Amino acid sequence: MKKSLPILLQIAVWIALWSVFAFTGNTEDHLPHYYYVITVRVLGFALFYNLAYHLLLPLYFSGKKSLFYTLLPLFFLGYIGFSVGVDLTLGKPEKMFANAEKKGHTSKKRSWSWLLIPPVFFGMTIFGVASGFRGVREFETQKKAEEEANRRRLEAEIALLKSQINPHFLLNTLNNLYGIAVTEPDKAPEALLKLSDMVRYILYDCAKPTVPLSQELDFIKNYISLQQLRLPPNVRLLVDIPDSDPGGSIEPMILIPFVENAFKHGLTTRQPCEIAVAVSAESNRLKLRVVNQIFTSQQTRQSNESGIGLANVMQRLKYAYAGQYELKISEANEIHSVLLDLQLGTT
């Protein structure tokens, strides 16, 4: 239906134009031959319009401008020749104006200027209309091509960011697991099981554009549980993550860098410290709050290097959730705070 719609619209336009010529002016002087002549003229309009639209103008927009400018004069000469030929062969005064002569009117002999002016006018009009419509079509085509290219570029960049986040996360987790195996070997089997679940998520689920939010939250819970195995007694951990399925979908591995960053920069054995992670999901919106302390020995390092994971996730948010999220990262009174408000997708 979409392919036939332009054809039907064009047919309607030509019929409307034929009607304008046929039913305007003094219709009493119109002989049957007159309707035959205007039919030939309108068919000529349609022919040269489509030649310009489908054959001539595409040469210009495809970069073949030398060929376009070579054929352009031939196009106009062809139309003018066709129109003059119709006037000289079909539009004879004795046929077209026979009825007028019976009423006592006389027809002036047409000069060459009278024969050439209408074809030039109509030829320029037809070409102008064809150029306008072709230009709009080429603009829309180019716009869609640019949007598709940008979409593919963003997909490639997001895929690259994901590929950077996953090894970065695994490297940090393996380092932590090594520390557990050395200091508390009895906790190593439990840690390996949790790591196995996390690796399975990374390998099989993170390849998808989006995952159910429940899977992403389970991944965060496993990560926090893995971290708890090595936390010193001076650390207070506050976790508020819903156990029930909140619904909605989300980009995989887009929340964990904020949580990981808190454990990376918010722990010390020299004094009491606290890490808080809270997640809520209502009305298809997710809210993540991560708070950790900043210690003097780590503050300079944290300000100079935010980590590959955190930098990448901010880029992913920009690409995948443009206009659909709010991210506030603040540092005050030696407290680092992350507040993320995100529009969830539908599952």
Short description:
The chain has helices spanning 4-22, 32-61, 65-89, 93-96, 98-102, 112-183, 188-205, 213-228, 256-265, 296-304, 308-320; strands spanning 211-212, 235-240, 249-250, 273-282, 285-293, 325-332, 335-343. The protein has 347 residues and is of the alpha+beta class.
Tell me what the structure shows.
This protein is of the alpha+beta class and 347 residues long. It folds into two domains: 4-146, no CATH class; 184-343, Histidine kinase-like ATPase, C-terminal domain (Heat Shock Protein 90), CATH 3.30.565. The protein has helices at residues 4-22, 32-61, 65-89, 93-96, 98-102, 112-183, 188-205, 213-228, 256-265, 296-304, 308-320, and strands at residues 211-212, 235-240, 249-250, 273-282, 285-293, 325-332, 335-343. The strands form two sheets. The protein has a five-stranded mixed β-sheet, with helices on one face. A two-stranded antiparallel sheet has the order 1-3. Helix 2 packs across helix 6, helix 6 runs antiparallel to helix 11 and helix 8 packs parallel to helix 9 (256-265).
CATH superfamily of the largest domain: Histidine kinase-like ATPase, C-terminal domain
Q: What is the strand tally?
A: 7
Q: Low-confidence parts lasting 5 or more residues at pLDDT below 50?
A: 93-110, 299-306
List the secondary-structure elements in sequence, H or E: HHHHHHHEHEEHEEHHEE
Shape descriptor: rod-shaped
Just name the CATH architecture of the largest domain.
Answer: 2-Layer Sandwich
CATH class of the largest domain: Alpha Beta
Alpha plus pi helix count: 11
Residues in helix, %: 55-70%
Computed structural class: alpha+beta
Radius of gyration: 37 Å
Strand arrangement in the largest pleated sheet: 2-4-5-7-6
Strand content: 5-15%
Q: How confident overall, as mean pLDDT?
A: 78
Report the biggest beta sheet as strand number plus sense, adding barrel if it closes.
Answer: 5 strands, mixed
Distance between the amino and carboxyl termini: 32 Å
Under CATH, the topology of the largest domain can be stated as Heat Shock Protein 90
- Structural domain count: 2
